[in-house]
Write a structure and sequence with these properties.
It is a single chain. This protein is mainly alpha-helical. It has a single domain, classed as Glycerol uptake facilitator protein (Up-down Bundle). It is built from twelve helices and no strands.
Length: 235
């Protein structure tokens, strides 16, 4: 139970900090509206690193169903706890997004474009091409999980690994973020997307876009599976 609570808290913090960056630079009346991609890259890297330090004593600090499944495939996590981890991660992502909607309630009310509001909570492609969009999320998550798997054990024991994770997240964003927003994580995309659908105001064109939204849920898991299987073969 402690591990599930850790994953819940960590994922909620990840979404609070990560989607919080998006709200901060995108919503009307925000004092940091107009912040650039570097702001977002740094913020999202920190959004993954800070919760990992915060709850590393409680759980494996996955905060991501794809990473959780990858860890189980590599033998680093008991399959029996995987469903509980994923449920905790998805609930944490929903709660983090819901808290942001309260914090930024006035700014959401001042923003007339539904798509801008949705973009604060979940990702979307710059060019809608389902095959390439799927491949983008697959490749980005492959890079993430394969790199995480190869971080030396000594780094993990000393918590230096979380600083390395920051580098991986920023690198993936810098290289792939312009394609699909580099979700790489259903708990960071599908859960806040559902929160947007249920809780965000309707400005006249509200659409959670589940027609695309299945990709940030499925493609990362596929990328994580392939990365973990390759890791097992090489080691």
């Amino acid at each position: 139970m402690q591990a599930y609570i850790g994953e819940f808290i960590g994922t909620a913090l990840l979404v609070l900090l990560g989607d919080g960056v998006c709200c901060n630079v995108s919503l009307n009346k925000s004092g940091m509206k107009g912040g650039n991609t570097v702001h977002i890259l740094i913020g999202w890297g920190m959004a993954v690193m800070v919760p990992a330090f915060a709850v590393s004593g409680m759980c494996i600090s996955s905060f991501n169903p794809a990473v959780t499944i990858g860890a189980a495939l590599r033998g680093g996590l008991d399959w029996a706890v995987v469903p509980g981890y994923i449920i905790a991660e998805m609930l944490g992502g929903f709660v983090g997004a819901a808290i942001l909607m309260v914090l930024y309630g006035d700014h959401i009310a001042a923003t007339d474009d539904d798509a801008t509001i949705r973009g604060c909570f979940c990702t979307g492609p710059s060019i809608r091409n389902m095959g390439l969009n799927f491949l983008s999320e697959f490749v980005a998550t492959f890079v993430l999980v394969f790199t995480l798997a190869n971080i030396p054990a000594a780094a993990g024991e000393s918590n230096v690994s979380w600083i390395l994770v920051y580098g991986v997240i920023v690198a993936c964003g810098a290289s792939f973020g312009g394609l699909t927003g580099y979700a790489m994580n259903a708990a960071r995309d599908s859960a806040p997307r559902f929160a947007y659908q249920l809780l965000a105001p309707d400005k006249g064109a509200k659409d959670p876009d589940w027609g695309y939204g299945w990709i940030p849920a499925v493609a990362p898991i596929c990328g994580a599976v392939v990365a973990s299987l390759l890791y097992n073969v090489l080691h």
